[in-house]
Amino acid sequence: LRFNARQRLRILTVSGNYSLSREMNDSEGTFSLPSNSHDLSADWGRRNTQRHQVTTSVNAQLPLGVFLTLGVEARSGRPYTITTGRDDNGDTVSNDRPPGVPRNSETGPGFRSTNLNFSKVFFLRRDAGDQRRAGGAGAQINVFANISNTLNRTNIERVSGALTSTRFGQPTRAGDPREIEIGMRFQF
C-alpha cells in the first residue's frame, strides 16, 4: 500500500511518500538453503523487508539562485531469523531454528537518515545558437554539495540471530556514516 503527496508553494516544493508492505515467501534468496531440508514448508514466513517506509523532501530556491533540497527517510526495522547455530536435524546445514520459532520472527532497529543538497548554477554564455539548442540555457557550470546522513546517525543494518554466537542479539553491520560530496558539473 503506497501513498504519495506533492505540493508546490511559491519557492518550495514539498513531497512525501509512505509505504506499508507485508510480503510472505519461503526463501531468503536464490542461493539460500532451507532450515530443514526434510520439511520445506517450515520456511514459509514473512519476507526480509521493512514494513513501514517514509520519505519526504523539501526543495527550495534560496536567495542568489542557490537551490536547497532537504530529504528525510525513515524505515521500520528489517526482520531477521533466530537460529541455533548448529545442524540439529542432520541435513548438513547449520541454519536450524529453535522449535516453534518461525523464519524472520525478530525485527532489528529502524533506519533514519537526513540528507542535504545545495547547488548553484553559473551560466557561461548565451548566444542565439545556444538558446535554440538548449532551450536558452547555454553552457553552464553547476556547483553542488551533497551531505548524506547529515546527522551522522548510526543505522544498524544487521543483527546476529545465532544463539551460539557471543554476539547474539547485537549489531554486526552498520550503514554508512555521514558523507560529504562537493563537485562541479559542466553542461553545454
Largest sheet: 7 strands, antiparallel
Q: C-alpha Rg, in Å?
A: 24 Å
Mean pLDDT, rounded to whole units? 87
Helix content: under 10%
Number of strands: 13
What class do helices, strands and sheet pairing give? Answer: mainly beta
Strand order of the largest sheet: 1-2-5-6-9-10-13
Low-confidence stretches: none
The fraction of residues assigned to DSSP E strands is: over 45%
Number of helices: 1
Specify the overall morphology. Answer: elongated
Measured between the Cα atoms of the first and last residue, the distance is: 42 Å
Order of helices and strands: EEEEEEEEEHEEEE
Q: How would you describe this structure in keywords?
A:
mainly beta, 13 strands, 7-stranded antiparallel sheet, 188 residues, 1 helix
How is this structure best described in words?
The chain is mostly beta strands and 188 residues long. 3% of the residues lie in helices and 46% in strands. The protein contains one helix and 13 strands, in the order βββββββββαββββ. It has one helix spanning 128-133, and strands at 2-9, 12-20, 24-25, 45-46, 52-61, 66-75, 79-80, 106-107, 111-125, 139-148, 156-159, 171-174, 179-187. The strands form four sheets. The protein has a seven-stranded antiparallel β-sheet, with no helix packed on it. It has a two-stranded antiparallel sheet with strand order 3-4. Strand 1 (2-9) and strand 2 form a beta hairpin. The longest helix is centred in the C-terminal third of the chain and has 6 residues, at 128-133. The protein is elongated.
